[in-house]
Each structure stands twice: as structure tokens, then as C-alpha cells.
Amino acid sequence: MKQDFFKYQAQTTPHPLAMEISHANGSYIYTTDGKKHLDFVAGVSACSLGHRHPRVVQAIKGQLDKYLHVMVYGEYIQSPAVELSKLLASHLPDPLEKTYLTNSGTEAIEGSLKLARRVTGRSQIISAKLAYHGNTMGSMSVMGYEERKQAFRPLIPDITFITFNEDEDIKYITNKTASVILETIQGGAGFIEPKKEYLKKVKKRCEEVGALLILDEIQPGFGRTGKLFGFQNYDIIPDIIAMGKGMGGGLPIGAFTASSAIMDKLQDNPKLGHITTFGGNPVIAAAALATLQELTESDLMAATLEKEKLFRSLLIHPLIKEIRGLGLMLAFITPSAEITNQIILKCKNKGLILFWLLFEPLAVRITPPLTISKKEIEEGCQIILEVLNEILNIKK
């Protein structure tokens, strides 16, 4: 299987982890060699309810017995997509009420950028340095990391980059700006939270000049920060929110939500201004609906803050310089990229899955399922501390 993996499946790096998966359940992934791995990554924040959550699996099986794909997005009334969009609206502040369902987070970003240009009639898009919004051409255009995109230029024009959390740069938002797109919490840059009032200042400036604020909630979204969406921690309402990853319970989905007045601009002039074949797929929408129901009917979101406290209390070590993030969107910072690599690979060998961040080589990602137990957190942190001690002893 490993030979076929490398021969027939395209790779994204020269050295993938290449774990051969047998099955997964709850907080654990099992490989074909019989080993059990505690998952502190959750498919890079995608498996909010862990692996094969019973409510999600039941919803998928129930929809399989009814119908699969029947028509391109937006033409037929399909109850999983309608119920998902309605429930989502009920948990969002006004005027965010109308949702366009897509197949992935990066597609949600593409749709959001198109919508902002359509609404404002302007072309300039402002993004942040070290931002990551996906890898399609539009999303890559607003990526604030030249090394990852220089090989694919030319990209979409009229993009301006500002520094996240830098008030002075807000002046670059003008009456020529269609939209400002920001991650509510910068992910690839190292889980950087907005400083006090920063997002409110950006929104105020957008209102003054008639630009739209798009917040990328693909990583913080669906409960990871103690609220359904990260922006709800900062007393702000964006014009458009983009989401993905954790909303599908492990299946591929994305969405963007705005007011009806804004979203309805995609209906006409031109018609079919934004279309997708499989967006809102009934099986995936059923999984996302079950995920949203479980999160909003349980104490899982509030519990993320208590679990954050547990992580912070356990992960104290000379090789941990700081812990960034909020809730169960955490990353700890090491003294060097070499140490980061050693931690991730040594923990893998001891049965704990950790991962890297895109642009911050000193960071170790900790984004476990929201369903992770106190005992599992303690178990995983003990492995991390064992590895850190091994590395520290070698350095001595």
C-alpha cells in the first residue's frame, strides 16, 4: 500500500508522515500495524466531534437511504441543506442569516471575495501579511506569504497587504476597497489572536468607507474557541463569514454567510454569478447539521475553555516558550524549528499525533477533537513532556 501511495497518489511535500490508516474512533486513529494513536490534531481542526461520532454517522446513514446528489446547488429544496442553513442563522447575530454552502473552506473564500466585489463594485481587496485562506487561485492571491505563491504568479490583481494587529495600517482601507479579509485568529502565522479592539477598529473603518469585512472562520469556527465562531469573542459582527473544516464532522464542506441584502446580489446581474455542482450535498449537509446540533445542544463549546486551562497547566517545560491561541485552537512555541520537528516525530512514534503550522516553524499544533476527555488530555501531555525531557537531556 505504501508503494502505491507514493506511486499513484500526488503528494504535497517530499516527506509525508505516511501512516497507513486502519480505522478511527473517538480521539484515536489506528494504523494497520496495530498501533493506537491519540489524535491531538483532529484532521487539522476538521473532526470537531472526534472520529465517527455516533450522531454524525447516524445522520449520514439516514440520508444515504433517502437520496444522494439530485441537482446542482440552489435549484431543488433539499431538507438537510435548508435545515442546516436555518439552524446556523438561529445561532448567528443579525443580520447574518443567509448561507451559501460549498465543498470546502477555500471555495467559501472564493465566493466571499466575489460577493464583496459584486456588492461594492470595487476591486481592491485588503488582506493581512502571513494570512492563509486556502490554495485556489483567489484564496492564494490573498495569502500573505510570498514563498508559497511566487511559483504560481500572476495571481488576482489589486490585492494590498497590511500587518495584522497594526492599527497604523488601517488607514490603507479606503473608498477604493471592496473588502478586507482577515482570519479572526491567524492560523498559519502561529495562532495569533487579535489585540483588544483591533477587529472593531477595522470594522469601523470599513463602515466609514463602504468596504465589507470578511472574517475567515475556517479554523476557529464551529466551537473551537468556546463560541460557535471566533468573532463572537470580540464583540464584532462581520459582513461576511467564511467557514469550513470543523463544520462537517469529518466530511468536506464549506460555507459563507451574510445578510440577505448582500447575499441576494449573487442571484442576478449576472445570473449564475456563483455556482457549484456539489455544494450543499445532502449527505454532507446532514453530517454538518448533526455536528451543529450536537455542538449547540451540549456543553462542548463551553468545555473547550476548561480544557484549554488543563493544557496550559500541564504543558509547562523549559522548551515551551509560550502557548498561543484560545480554547482548543492552541499551539506551543519551541526554541527552534529543529526541536519542533523532533517533538512532532518523536510523539508520533510514541502514539501521539501532533502537527506543524504553515508559516511558523517554531509552533506545534494542538487542535484535538472538542470531545477529547480530561484523561486523554493528560495522557497526551504526558507523552509531550516525556519527549521534551528526552530532547532536553540530549541538548545537555
Explain what this protein looks like in three dimensions.
- It contains 13 helices and 15 strands.
- With 396 residues, the protein is an alpha/beta fold.
- The strands form 3 sheets. It has a 7-stranded mixed sheet with strand order 4-10-9-8-7-5-6, sandwiched between helices. It has a 4-stranded mixed sheet with strand order 1-2-3-13. It has a 4-stranded antiparallel sheet with strand order 11-12-15-14.
- β7 (177-183), α8 and β8 form a beta-alpha-beta unit.
- The longest helix has 22 residues, at 374-395.
- The protein is globular and about 65 Å long.
List the helices and strands and how they pair.
Layout: H1 2-8, E1 21-25, E2 28-31, E3 36-39, H2 42-45, H3 54-64, H4 79-90, E4 98-102, H5 105-120, E5 124-128, H6 137-141, H7 146-149, E6 159-162, E7 177-183, H8 198-209, E8 212-216, E9 240-243, E10 254-258, H9 260-263, H10 282-297, H11 300-314, E11 322-326, E12 329-333, H12 337-349, E13 352-353, E14 355-356, E15 363-366, H13 374-395
Helix pairs in contact: 3-10, 4-10, 11-13, 12-13
